[in-house]
Specification:
By secondary structure, this protein is α/β, with parallel strands linked by helices. The protein has 9 helices and 4 strands; from the N terminus they run ααααααβαβαββα. The termini are far apart. About 30% of the residues are buried.
């Protein structure tokens, strides 16, 4: 690092997200993401009809979330939220970094709210929507490809914003949290 770089505030030296960062993220998640067929095979092996399953039959088996055991952690978080300000049937919750949509379907199951999920990667959005349709939650969930640092929900009234571990993947933290604070 050059001497003049040492004088520049650290936040000014941080790179912003780029197309190559997005491609690296896509390559990583494409390698570890289950396909719809793999999820259906796992459900069949458990004696569940993959064409007519419940959301909990996915998330309790960690089939729709990349973090093993995440539904248990969601339960803990939902208990805390339930003690303070639980979303209800008239509320729309934003799930930033929704991935395969498991956490959002958990919230719909738990609170009866609606969830709109955003993720940077189109293949994850497609799989999230397909799984919501299979579980009969397509009317309470929606998904869109979006950059968490450049959200546009002017037409929506969002009651809450949820974000699990996606913040670790976003370099532009100030932009991310400015977006969240706006809702």
């Amino acid at each position: 690092m050059a001497d003049e770089d040492l004088l520049t505030p650290a936040r000014s030296r941080v790179r912003t997200d780029s197309a190559s960062d997005t491609q690296r993220l896509a390559s990583f998640y494409e390698a570890i993401s289950p396909s719809l067929d793999a999820i259906a095979t796992a459900l069949r092996a458990a004696g569940v009809d993959p064409d007519h399953c419940l959301a909990r039959e996915l998330y309790q088996r960690d089939l729709d979330c990349h973090n093993l055991g995440m539904h248990e952690m969601l339960g803990v978080l939902a208990d805390v939220v339930g003690d303070h300000a639980p979303p209800g049937p008239d509320d729309e919750v934003l799930d930033i970094g929704c991935g395969l949509g498991g956490p959002g379907r958990f919230l719909v199951d738990r609170f009866g709210c609606s969830v709109v999920g955003v993720d940077l990667l189109p293949f994850r959005i497609e799989l999230a929507q397909a799984l919501s349709d299979v579980t009969g939650m397509g009317d309470r969930t929606s998904y869109r490809v979006a950059d968490a640092t450049q959200l546009d929900f002017e037409d929506s009234v969002l009651s809450q914003v949820w974000m699990l571990d996606v913040a670790i993947h976003i370099r532009a933290k100030q932009a991310l949290f400015a977006q969240i604070a706006g809702y």
